[in-house]
Amino acid sequence: MEYSFKYSDTHSYFSDATGPKEQGASNSSRRGSASFAYSDSFEETCERYTRGYPKGTGLAKELSLQLTPFLRTVQGMKRGFTPQRYAGGNFILSNYVRGIPEVCSVMSPIVSKKFASIIVNNTASCGVEAETLLRRGVVTLALADILQSNGYRTSIKVCFATGAGNNKLSCIIDVKPFHQTPDLDRLAFFLADPSAFRRLFFSFLETKLDAIARRNMQVDYGNYGHPVELPKTEIGDKDIYLGCQDWHNQAWHTTDGAIAWIKETLKRYGIVFHG
Question: 31 or 54: whose pLDDT is higher?
């Protein structure tokens, strides 16, 4: 059996993850230790959802500043002459004659036509330390910040995917559409706060699934399945996809390994480093 959930906004997902539970449903989202979930309580995780996770933002900004001096071939936000209604540039006589109100050619930013789509599978095995999840999320947020600040319109989707026997479940949340201005503190919660997975997503499984689905996914046994990759049909050829995290993935165990990943990924977008 396969279960698939998609959310176009974070509010609907949060509402489902914090809804009422059926009698007999597991309660591990509330009982997990602080060292495992990276929050003292489920209530603290909900508060971070509401207020954001500035710790993750601060670490991502620090990493961005560390990398930015070494950027070499960044294609920034383009500027060019565009017709405007207000004065300040060359007068466009042909527009004036035709009654077009934009009669002045003014140097101004041009809306970027460059796009970068990031899909992050934030499912992790229980052997992965919370600090590792935090580090990966910080690097992903820094990647998005660098792309955004250099003229790319970014889309970020966070997904969780688990398997139990022949059963699989995936949940995809659109946390930052292309047209939306990034709220880094809110993004930091979903990308870098381990409790977004180990408390809020666990609660989603406990509240959203019916009794049969919970048994199929081993939720009521306190297992919650094992990490699996997102179906290939959900990943585009040009998407930056970060797969599920297990202990054997060495890229996120150290800061140097994480930086190496971000440099390699940015090469796809014409952003390379020296030094």
Answer: 54
